[in-house]
Design brief:
By secondary structure, this protein is an alpha/beta fold. It is about 35% helix and about 15% strand. The protein has one domain: 3-Layer(aba) Sandwich (Rossmann fold), CATH 3.40.50. An 8-stranded mixed beta sheet has the order 3-2-1-4-5-6-7-8, with helices on both faces. This is Pyrroline-5-carboxylate reductase catalytic N-terminal domain-containing protein. GO terms for molecular function: oxidoreductase activity.
């Protein structure tokens, strides 16, 4: 699968390396494509997105929708958009206290297939989930086929099927996104980001 990762920060780089190792074709979309040091080709966000089967937004949540607007509705139509972002203010509060980036993204781009996942954890846990033992990764989205594609990619990252928790439609993305203040509080308490949620039932 050809995956366009929009964003070349630590999250985008970690996921790109992991997907390349799993045999996927990765291209980065960046505002500064001339910079070096990325593990895969880098081009503009619009060109990267247009060439891909799946678009991954590894961006701050507040920037994710505006970046996709620059890509264009026509490019996004019919494509899976895997959103791993969180939207917080500079003070660390929720930017959308009554909503979520995932739901707003689906509303803004109704012809795209938005799936929310991987937003409750540090990028080192995203790409090495078994290091912590059994933990949980949430999946939200309206399109079942798109969610199944994302679940397959999660398996490629090392997430067992039993650890993948499908919350339902994209409206449920509000739950994982609203966990982020607790994530930061936990990080402050434990002093390191290598932790995650586990649903035990």
């Amino acid at each position: 699968m050809r995956i366009a990762i929009l964003g070349t920060g630590p999250v985008g780089i970690a996921l790109g390396n992991a997907f390349i190792a799993a045999g996927h074709d990765v291209v980065y979309g960046s505002r500064s494509p001339e910079k070096d040091g990325r593990p895969a080709p880098v081009t503009t966000t619009a060109i990267a997105a247009d060439s891909a089967d799946l678009i991954l937004t590894a961006l701050p949540g507040a920037a994710a929708i505006s970046t996709l607007e620059a890509v264009g509705d026509d490019v996004l139509a019919g494509k899976i958009v895997l959103d791993v972002s969180n939207a917080v203010t500079p003070e660390g509060a929720l930017a959308y206290p009554n909503d979520s980036v995932g739901r707003l993204m689906q509303e803004r781009f109704p012809d795209a297939k938005v799936v929310k996942s991987l937003s409750t954890m540090y990028h080192g846990v995203m790409t090495d989930p078994t290091a912590l033992g059994a933990t949980t990764v949430y999946v939200s989205g309206n399109d079942d086929d798109a969610k199944n594609v994302v679940k397959s990619l999660l398996s490629d990252l090392g997430w067992p099927e039993a650890s993948q928790f499908d919350l339902g439609g994209i409206e449920t993305a509000v739950g994982p996104e609203h966990y982020i203040p607790l994530f930061f509080m936990t990080l402050q308490a434990v002093g390191a980001p290598v932790f995650n949620i586990n649903v035990v039932r």
